[in-house]
Design brief:
single chain; 331 residues; alpha/beta; five-stranded mixed β-sheet; 38% helix; 22% strand
Length: 331
Amino acid sequence: MPDRRLDVLAIGNAIVDVIADADDDFLAAHGMHKGAMQLIDEAQAARLYQAMGPAREASGGSAANTVAGLASLGLKAGFIGQLGDDQLGSIFSHDIRSLGVEFATPPRSGIGATGSCLILVTPDAQRTMNTFLGAAQVLEPDAVDLAQVADAAILYLEGYLWDPEGPRAAMYKAMDAAREARTKVAFTLSDSFVVDRHRGDMLRLLEEGRIDILFANGVEILQLAGSDSVDEAVATVAPQVQTLVVTMSEKGALAVRRGERANVPAERIERLIDTTGAGDLFAAGFLAGEARNLGLEPSLRLGAICAAEVIQHYGARPEADLRSLAKGLFD
């Protein structure tokens, strides 16, 4: 990998996670289905936020979780994401910068509130999520600093942002700048609904050679390839991208690069608590390995280590020192 000021620069949803305890009566009173995730509007978010009890607040969002993992591994990471000019925006900015992540996207007024995910945890450990995307979905191309892209070895793009026109244009601009600067482009499909809605665009990105590293889970790779077999789907997609990475939960993960294939099992864990952020932290580990030229199998193992840490506690950010967990593999 080229020697750059940043190892990874990510573009994604800038969202604040607000986590509070609640009981079943609270969920019923607010029309929630326990354990589910629903999208809500700004007015709903404001009402629910006021009704929630004492909460823990931290910057969140898929790509933001990934750069938090990268920072925990000691890498130099940056993030681009849009905030509103409000209290939650200030929380996000302070939190992500406190991790050592470079974040310079200015907040904007007049575009609505900062995105938030209001999470209610019931005594049975079920998490019920209410997501307001807010200002995150109005990221504009002007927010992309071309010099910052050129200063990064890897550009990492979050598929969740592909829906709105502005963020999609911003990511195209970043990909063009990355190609000119010889910055590698990594893209995560993020969710099956992204593939379902934008399969044509995803295939076109691969066909045009805009993506160097593609992350998918088992369901997403089947959808992208139009197949009912993971092996067949991998065989279909792998020739279209330099590096394909597929995660398969407890079945481990695989990566293919120019005919070379590596597989690793999932890391053993003591107790499964919460799978939120598993894919985000796996991407952090794999990208860290790529940035340090570890090779496919060690990068996959590093991803598995990071994913195993985050699923053994609540929340999508690492609580343990990932660098210590990966000692001997990643120093």
